[in-house]
Specification:
CATH class: Mainly Beta
Oligomer: single chain
CATH topology: Porin
Shape: elongated
Structural class: mainly beta
Number of helices: 1
Largest sheet: 8 strands, antiparallel, barrel
Number of domains: 1
Number of strands: 10
Order of helices and strands: HEEEEEEEEEE
Radius of gyration: 19 Å
CATH architecture: Beta Barrel
Length: about 210
């Protein structure tokens, strides 16, 4: 579970590439869309949940709440706060998700709170359906419980796409998928003494939820 310095630099480089792509999408949307009137800004709030695959611990549940503001006809900026976590077990020298599998197992627990800034570029398909691209990044605050709690944090990035379905004037159903690049270093095993390890969140996230527009 140790991360090389070269690998850490690679993930940071990807983060800046994705953020650059997000800014490019925003600029394109502002240039190609109709003239934006400040009084027509729409604010939306969404809540969603789903499945996240992490490189370190496999699949875990995740929920996200997000506040969106339209900044151009097809472009939205958003602030999101999420939560993901799970209880894991240590058996011998391997970690496995789920319940204990042996007498010598020692339960561990981790949680991560992502706080991210996101950009969305929407592409209307028809009056009831819109597809979108998203990119962004933020800070991932993680806590890991062994004998004692250990808190660490680091920055990460993501890139994805989704579909909005509009059954009512101010309500959307949303389905999205994204790939995340985030790794938090510096955790240590206290029961089974070993080298420091990283909590890698690299992986695919799939969520579904609702957005309310104001």
């Amino acid at each position: 579970m140790r991360v090389s310095h070269r690998g850490h630099q690679f993930h940071r480089g990807l983060m800046f590439v994705f953020l650059f792509m997000a800014v490019s999408l925003m600029t394109q949307g502002a240039a190609q869309g109709e003239e934006f009137n400040g009084f027509e800004r729409r604010v939306g709030f969404s809540i969603s949940g789903g499945y996240t695959h992490t490189e370190s611990f496999g699949g875990v549940p995740e929920v996200t709440a997000e506040l969106q503001i339209r900044i151009a006809p097809q472009v939205y900026a958003a602030l999101a706060v999420g939560y993901l976590g799970d209880t894991i077990s240590m058996h011998g020298s391997s970690m496995m998700a789920g319940s204990p599998v042996g007498f010598d197992d020692h339960l561990h627990r981790f949680q991560v709170i992502p706080i991210t800034l996101n950009l969305y570029y929407a592409v209307p398909v028809n009056p009831k359906v819109a597809a979108y691209l998203t990119a962004g990044g933020g800070y991932y605050a993680a806590t890991y419980w062994d004998i004692n709690s250990q808190s660490r944090g680091d920055f990460g990035a993501h890139l994805g796409a989704g579909i909005n379905l509009k059954p009512a004037q101010k309500v959307d159903f949303c389905v999205s998928g994204m790939y995340r690049f985030a790794r938090i270093d510096g955790f240590r095993e206290e029961i089974h003494t070993g080298p420091d390890f990283s909590l890698s969140l690299n992986g695919f996230r799939l969520q579904a939820g609702m957005r309310f527009r104001f």
